[in-house]
Amino acid sequence: MPSTEQLRASAIIAFREELARLEAEGVVALDPATRRRIRAHHDATLAALAARGDVDLTAAAARLSTGMRIATLLGTIALSAAYGLFVSAHWGTLALAPQLALVGFPPVLLVVLTHVAVVRERSGYVASLIATVAAIAFAVNLGTLGQLYNLPDSRVALLAVGAFAMLLAYGYGLTLPLIVGIGGLGGWLWTLGAIPLGLWWRDGFGVIEPLLLVGLLALAAPTWIRGPAKFAPWWRGMGASALVLGLLLVESNGGLSAFATTGRHTIETGYKLLGAVALTGLVVWGIRRDQRLVTQIGSVGAVLYLFMRLVDWFWDLLPKWLFFLLVGAFALSVLLVLRRLRRARAVPA
Amino acid sequence: MRWAIAAMALVVVANGVVLVSAGRERAAPATLTTIEVCSGHLVGGETSDEAPALRLRVAPDSLSIPPGLDAPGLRALGYPEAVIAAVGRERDSTFRWPRSRPAWVRLRQRSDSLAEFAVVEVAPRRELLARDSGTVVVRGLIGLRERRNGPAPDAMAGHEHAAPGVVRTAGVIYPAVIELIPSQLHLDHRQIATLRAGLGDTAGCAVTRQAVIASGAKGGIWVESVR
Q: How far is CA B161 from CA A181, B156, B164, B204, in A?
């Protein structure tokens, strides 16, 4: 997701390129004084944006940034795996005190390192990596403590790790820990559905209604949680993913509903109707509010939903070649509808 | 920096809560139970990547249903009447497998060749279970299983090309402990070394050592000592 700083910088660069083109084509000719004033203002703005955050001022820099994001993700996975494997390799040979130090000290140390990285490296990539490894180290910490003291596994660990990741994400404006935080807190909320049903907390993951509520909460979160503007698309994207995943799962398997003790067929039919309305609503909401990620996730969900309905209705009725011909025709009609929508949106206000 | 301090405080508090409550419970064990440990009960240790632990193995279900898994017991665990009515009968096409339910389980070690644990009693709350020095109380998940009696002889007759395993008949529904929580107890580096040295790679329970399992007043369980 491009940050607000990046969007502004891209707009300035695009303005400069378009102005040069208009001048070359003889459409407009700014007087030197105005040109200098605009140039100076934009230079100052770009310098301020670059000082505030990591901003790509050229296409080459943007490509390098993508590489840096991929490297951050890979580095996080590799460092977390290294830590987890190191703990498990040495765990059995250590006495209690070194065991506790081995799992309790790293999250604290990594928080300090995150702070140092934020101060010394403004792009935030290194800090994001370290903060995410810190959250995973904290999860390892709680997991191994549970193992050490034979504690039953608990949803509280999800809450603790989610809260920890959120503190680092909002404290330092880091995106990767935010995703871990949303996952942790969302997972905790999802499993709360097990309580009224009298289930063990893990079995809460087999009940879909709380996931749908978590999705709606995450979609609404940016309106009531203050924080960096770049976080909003991630909240909405993860909320939309939860909604899409939940609806697709429950409409094909009514046994995943909290109300599965009553007529399962009725539940599936109800969720099929709800899915049609909710997925369409998600796409429309995404287009109207200009939420690109929500629109994309909603569209993927709607296409999958329609494909599943085609399978339900026609797989047993039609010859296989005719079924796939129908799917192809359906895909073409989706393309035509989306093209028409895009054209309608392309006309400037 | 205040966010970093808050994150560090969260780590310290989470660790502190676990350590203090476990420390208090372990200072005064409520019951001590001596069990036999066989080589097959041990997990990890030495050069293994797995953490050293003592596995609690529940014996395959017997035909008798322990107290707490009968109809009133299942009702107390929250199973609906339709599910309770299906227990003890052959599964029909309308039967839907219910989700497992958490409970407390009292286990007694068998004196057979594998020294596994048999379920003595099940209850929704720990206080409802009797405690003695011959049994261990842990959490568990209660679910329903199907006991198959094998394919009917005449079902096989007309299907000469079918593999025997393909022909399935509906079995009888019965309740069982499907998971213990925790399913294994942590062993410290001295305990695992003692047990490994005494048991080696012996098969089954030809050689055994003893372990004392302690239970705390609040439901904690741990290996107090080995000998």
A: 55, 10, 9, 39
- The SS3 assignment for A78 reads helix
Do B123 and B38 reside in the same domain of the chain? no
Contacts of B120 (CB under 8 A, 6+ apart): B66, B67, B106, B107, B108, B135
> Is-contact B100 B143, C-beta < 8 A?
yes
Does the structure show a pLDDT above 60 at B159?
no
Of the candidates A93, A100, A167, the beta carbon closest to that of B189 is on A93
CB contact at 8 A, B43 and B54:
yes
* Chain B contact probe: residue of A86, A109, A111, A209 with most B CBs at under 10 A: A111
- A108 vs B contacts (CB less than 8 Å): 8, 11-12
Q: Degrees (nearest 5) of the Cα angle B30, B32, B36?
A: 155
User: Could you tell me if A205 and A277 lie in one domain?
Assistant: yes
If one counts the domains in chain A, the total is 3
Residue type, A144: T
User: Number of folded domains in chain B?
Assistant: 2
Residue-wise pLDDT tens digits, A91-124: 777 888 888 888 889 999 999 999 988 888 777 7
pLDDT single digits (tens) A227-241: 888 899 999 999 999
Bridge partners (DSSP) of residue A42 are none
Q: What ipTM was reported for this prediction?
A: 0.83
Beta bridge partners of A77: none
**Is B44 found in the same domain as B105?**
no
- Render pLDDT for B167-195 as a digit per residue (tens, 0 to 9): 556 788 889 899 999 999 999 888 888 88
Instruction: Classify residue A170: in a domain, yes or no.
Output: yes
User: What is the span of the domain harbouring residue A27?
Assistant: 1-57
Locate B44 and state its tokens.
């990890």
CA distance A248 to A302: 9
**Angle at alpha carbon of residue B88, lines to B86 and B94, rounded to 5°:** 30
| Strand-pair category, B31-37 with B209-215 | antiparallel
Per the CB < 8 Å rule, is B181 touching A152? yes
Closest CA to A297 of A223, A242, A232: A242
pTM above 0.90, yes or no: no
Q: Which residues of B touch A260 (CB under 8 A)?
A: 96
Q: Decide if B11 is inside a domain.
A: no
